[in-house]
Design a protein that fits this description.
By secondary structure, the chain is of the alpha/beta class. It is built from ten helices and 21 strands. Strands 7-6-15-16-17-14-18-21 form an eight-stranded mixed beta sheet. A hairpin with a 7-residue loop joins strand 10 and strand 11. The longest helix is centred in the last third of the chain and has 28 residues. It binds flavin-adenine dinucleotide and 3,4-dihydroxybenzoic acid.
Amino acid sequence: MIRTQVAIVGAGPAGLMLSHLLHRAGVASIVLEARSRGYVEGRVRAGVLEQGTVDLLKQSGVGERLAREGLVHDAVELRFQGRGHRIELSRLARGRTITVYGQQEVVKDLVRARLEAGGDIRFEFTDIALHEVATSRPRVTGRMQGESVEIACDFIAGCDGSHGICREAVPRSQRAVHERAYPFAWLGILARAAPSRDHLVYAHHDRGFALFSMRSPTLTRLYLQVAPDEELSAWPDERVWDELEARFEGEDGWRPARGAVIEKSVTGMRSLVVEPMRHGRLLLAGDAAHVVPPTGAKGLNLAMADVRVLAAALASFYSGEGESALDAYSATALERVWRAQHFSWWMTALLHRFPEGDSFQRRLQHAQLEYVVSSEAARASFAENYVGLPFEAP
Ligand code: FAD
Ligand code: DHB
């Protein structure tokens, strides 16, 4: 039997950052991760960090490489009906910007920081089960290298992502689930090609949505809206590039530069919130508690915002201030979650092609897109949500 203060399930951005922030507050934790270190560090996912996420990483001492290698963007482009419209960010959002830096780089930096500080991350820890989460003596059991392991703790942090087991450990009668499915998915590629634009491009086209992004001066990241059950085999590289060019077509003749495709995958899209984010001594954070469609680039940023509040609440408990901050955790986190849910849903509905070919919906999309790019107030609202609202005092 091993003992710790906080047992954290999942070594994604939420679990690792929570462990890091707790360590800085003098609270002990063990991170339990089903996959290997190589798998977790190699998984290509999100790439846009909000200002608040960047500030949090830097202020907590894990932002050194981010400061060096992250690409600060002061604008994004909305492209539709053959024209691109640049939306400035910092001028419209009180000096705030976004930084392009891959999620897997954030994960690598956090793993390194935890291990260098003597942190306990157990990779390939499988068959996790949670016990007595509604009592003050919860336990986690699982297997590692063929051995059964049991961990006694004060709290369990469920940071195991959208397909984890922690959400299910909250009894059905004690949770509400709010959900929305979308009739499409994203096919994403990572290509060895210098980005041919210095900002992100979100394109709405009759053939479907497309997104141009990047990871570094030599890597381009691109996404295409596809059917939810799309087979990767139906999308050889040539077809992906041709379709991207068709959807980004415009008067300025811009197109993404082609290059060798080094990663290709399909991601489903949904919106989901589980309420509340706490059950007894089990605290949910990140995708374990809520999932957003990727259009607004909010998933990773929400995970970071959750654990910032959660780490402060746990630190307050351990400094003898009682449970009031923990009691407030769910409501505090959910306020931001619902704002981001709305923005992600809105941006998804604005930019994608809906399969039923609803002409009324399409006209609404065009009217709204025209409004967003032509009204200073609408642009400012877009920019403020896109760069992320400032954190309030936890
Ligand atoms: P995760 O990063 O999912 O981490 C959870 C961890 O828990 C994982 O390491 C997992 O292996 C581990 N785990 C799961 N179950 C168990 C278990 N039973 N026992 C132990 N460990 C377990 N967001 C964007 O903003 N833009 C994007 O382009 C984008 N693309 C995405 C592509 C994919 C394929 C996916 C799945 C998500 C994408 N997201 C994107 C969302 C974003 O990556 C997530 O919001 C972010 O990863 C949330 O971090 P997290 O730590 O909460 O969860
Ligand atoms: C990326 C992903 C997003 O979901 C998004 O809105 C912008 C960029 C990316 O992976 O680079």
